[in-house]
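Hey, quick one: can you model this chain's 3D structure?
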Amino acid sequence: MPISTRLFNDQAITRFNRITSDIQQTQDKVATGKKVLKASDDPVAAANISFVRDQKVMLDRFATNIDRAQTRLTLTENVVAESVNLLTRAYELGIQAKNDTLTAVDRRAISFEISQIRESMMSLANSKDVNGNYLFAGYRTNVQPFVSNEAGEVTFAGDRGVHSVQISDSLRANTGLDGADVFMRVDIDGTTKPFFDVLTSMERELQGGAINNETVAELNACIDHFAVNQTRVGAELNKLDYQKSAMERRVLLMDENLSGLEDADLANLVSELQTMIVSRDAAQRSFVQIGQQSLFDYIR
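Sure thing. Here's the predicted structure for all 300 residues.
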């Protein structure tokens, strides 16, 4: 009769199943390069890994906000910079028109270029972003913010809202400027005035063959006003650049921390796997040999 008993067989099968499971788990770790495949492998490490990954998801969202804000602010900066260039040209024309050697006909000719500058400024004021939304309409992004009537009067149809996005746990950044503040509220000698009115006055004066010193001075104030707003946009872009660099450094540290928590030592795993396979094979051979023995083999 065989020496093996049912209990011996059951214990051996249980042991083989456990060894096989351990081998399979080790093979999975080798295949994935990760030492923590499920929370039960290392509950503390698994909790830390989950936390770091959640933080990275949040940082990815902030990075997306920064990219969108940079795109919109860059468009805004281009509009304001081009406005400064156009107004500078208008100011140069105003200085030129003051020259006593110019005739009334010459000044009327200059008025045509001022009219073109005014039209270009209207187009800039109604610029859109990459999504087709107006840059200077506030929260009413689908409404054309600046409208001119036949008399040359410009009205603002947007609102005073300024879009902003979250770029860190505690920091927000504006993605544009208040359109009404930029184009309709130029500070001239303590009072606010739409800069379109300055260009309209200048055009009409030149069409009449003259130019007032006050109008040229107001135009210079408009240039200063837009230059200040250009600086404001630049400051927001600088804030985004700084935050983006800080966040990239933070992500790098998180990646290093995550690697330390979950990356496996492949050399050790392979060595451990080979040891398990050898042990399993030896145990299987022993089981077969013992199972084939009888009482007579034991008596001998």
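One thing worth noting: The beta strands are 146-148, 154-156, 164-166, 172-174, 186-188, 191-193.
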